[in-house]
Amino acid sequence: MRLARPTLHTETLVLLAAVYLLAACNGPFWNAALGSRDWALPGTWALAAAMAVSFTAAYVAFCGLVAARWTVRPLLAVLLVTGAALSYYIDRYGVFFDRGMLRNVLATQWSEARELLGPGFILHVLVFGIVPAALLWWPRLQRRPLLRAVAIRAAWIVGGIVVAVAAMLPVFQDFASMMRNDRQMRFLLTPGNAVVALLQEAWSGSGRAPPASVPVGTDARLAPTWQQRRPTLFVVVVGETARAQNFGLNGYARDTTPELARRGVIPFTDVTACGTSTEVSLPCMFSAYGRRHYDEDKIATHESLLHVLKHAGVPVLWRDNQSGCKGVCQGLPVEQVDQLPGVACPAGGCLDESLLHGLQQRLDSAQGSLVLVLHQLGSHGPSYFRRYPPASKRFQPACEQDELRRCSQAEIVNAYDNTILYTDHVLGRVIDFLAAQQRFDTGLLYVSDHGESLGESGLYLHGVPYAIAPDVQKKVPMVAWLSPALATSTKLDVQCLRARAALPASHDNLFHSVLGLMDVQTSVYEAGMDLFRPCRAAP
């Protein structure tokens, strides 16, 4: 016996989809909003009912503006699948979906994204997104005459707005207090969070100038001291997802940095990142604006530290084992590791030792000084076990799953610590490579772009809005190594620098510290932000 297909109006279908989304795809939001409240109190039930009615009415009003009879099913299908996908990641990893997270998603390469698309995710999206989306095509949609349809649609939109406001009025004080105390809660409400983030990104991106189009430091020039200096090879290693807490040099209980310790590097032990994602931190750390004067549009459209070095006549090269330089190296020489001749990368991406492939030949043909940036894949999750070779599997048992929920927290930490151990090995190799150079004075500065959550407070990965992000996502490791020749040529007291390395520092210091160490004179240089300046003798 075949079931008769029901006949619905477009507005009724929108209403049913809105109720479903709020009920089935917003568990993390409802838990954050009501999980700590006493359900024996009438006020809790009143607030829950008011939010449910108000948000449903708001969704109906919004969809009523854009959904016609021939577009409503595709539109709702997209919202259902999006809501299911977001609810999975918000629930599993404790992420907040805001504009910054949207930009992370849009910038993610397939090699990174597929690690997040495990069987659990596919099953969840199938059950909670694709199946309900397919059911949208079951009912027939009833037609109305044009004028009547327009009048009824207008009534639904106005009615939705009125109901959304009216439902919230009796509990407004309670609701407003809750949102003031936890402003980030709105980033849990799906799929409204995705729609708002997309509109914000579209609005802010319209009319924006191309990346690195506004010159910075065009007055840059090399100081007269360069007349007595040999060429300098300075390497900036940008780490990925390394958190300061798990660095052995910073006092971690495990010795995750034995090779760096043997090479006498200088660890800066209190360093704060500019953001909690690569999309934010990478452009910010190479910018003259930094976190102190943070302006996303200015950072995106103004030249970076590397362009200032170029203005001064110092060649730069960006070598990437990640998802690009996010505009930092716009118009400058770039080498992608997986495209270098002779480099074979496994499915999980190239190991970071590939950043050294063919580098000696590259230097042999270089003229004068060079600033080299190595952008690591580092500790990028959730598949930490793919980031290191068998030789770095010291901490066991380690999580070897793409889905972290299949592992215990101890196994996750073991896998993550193995990535730090491998980063330590890579940095050791870079230092040895630099120490062997006879033609250059050499130095290295390593700093991670952001940290990582490994299950603390139910959070995993990174990207939590900066205002509420835990320190493990904001505190990053940073180490410096200087050859004796470079310390001498720059008149730098290494022991002084070592003594000052425990003072607070941040990504904001990178721009000015590199300019200072390279003896680049420019109006955009701030001596007070140069970590090396207090330990350098006056010229």
TrEMBL record:
SUPFAM superfamilies: Alkaline phosphatase-like (SSF53649). InterPro entries: Alkaline_phosphatase_core_sf, EptA-like_N, PEA_transf_C, PEA_transferase, Sulfatase_N. It is a multi-pass membrane protein. GO terms for cellular component: plasma membrane. The chain crosses the membrane at residues 12-33, 45-68, 75-96, 116-138, 150-172. GO terms for biological process: lipopolysaccharide core region biosynthetic process. Keywords: Cell inner membrane, Cell membrane, Membrane, Transferase, Transmembrane, Transmembrane helix. The keyword Cell inner membrane applies. The keyword Membrane applies. Residues 234-520 form the Sulfatase N-terminal domain. It is found in: Cell inner membrane. This is Phosphoethanolamine--lipid A transferase. It comes from Ramlibacter algicola.
